[in-house]
Amino acid sequence: MSDCVEPNNPSSDEDRRGFLTKLCLGLSALIGTMITLPGVGFVLAPVFARPKQVWRKLGKLDEYEVGKTVSVEFKDSIDQPWAGVTAMSGAWLRRVSEKEFIAFSINCRHLGCPVNWVEDASLFMCPCHGGVYYEDGEVAAGPPPEPLARYTVRVKDGFVEIETSSVPLTTNDQV
Ligand code: FES
Description:
By secondary structure, the chain is α+β, with helices and mostly antiparallel strands.
């Protein structure tokens, strides 16, 4: 009988208590993680989400004259019901040939003022601080640090379309 474990062995009670404590802590941590993770994911998802890119129709192909640069308006890809006029964005669209178009962001690369196309001089001029761009969007003079941003343009089903993203920042390479 000396080998039998006594029912009220203090070391056995401590082992059981220690095991239950660790089990409770482990379960609490698991439940806490299960509750917290979806919330953290919801908050951080927009930070890591890629900007949504959307094709917007501009107009019929035959509305644009070869060699001309015209201003166009389109809805940004944010397109929230509350956005109103802030969802609208602009670009300078040039028909280079029968099937080729270039679209420049309307926003100056310095501080984002809308630039004007001056046909006679073949230059984009920024009214805010005197920024000037050549017709290909390269900087000609003034404070802009880089060329005008460009949008991707395509012709589909007889319409000119522009690809826009939800973050039309003036300092991005891609609008
Ligand atoms: S915003 Fe265009 S030059 Fe400053």
